[in-house]
Amino acid sequence: MPDPILPEVRLLQPGDRCRLCRCGRSERLPDCPSDCPDGLSLTARREQRLLLCRCGQSKRLPWCDGSHSPPTPRLGQRWRRFWKGE
């Protein structure tokens, strides 16, 4: 079974710039090529952490919404997935 494609946590410092994919067609998710008209350009005003989609399934691109994982019916399973990657 192939390894799951997990989201990327990216730390931005004030003044950092990035261009993020919103269409899901980029070969280098979550980054977007400069010639794509749908890219989201960000400039950080403060230190912040972004949770970015790398699987392309999110309905809120470029942000991860958890679509890469099947739903878990119980809270304990969610915590195990979060802390242990199960």
UniProtKB/TrEMBL annotation:
This is CDGSH iron-sulfur domain-containing protein. InterPro entries: CISD, FeS-contain_CDGSH-typ, MitoNEET_CISD. Gene3D superfamilies: CDGSH iron-sulfur domain, mitoNEET-type. GO terms for molecular function: 2 iron, 2 sulfur cluster binding; metal ion binding. Pfam families: zf-CDGSH. Residues 35-74 form the Iron-binding zinc finger CDGSH type domain. GO terms for cellular component: cytoplasm. It comes from the Bacteria. SMART domains: ZnF_CDGSH (SM00704).
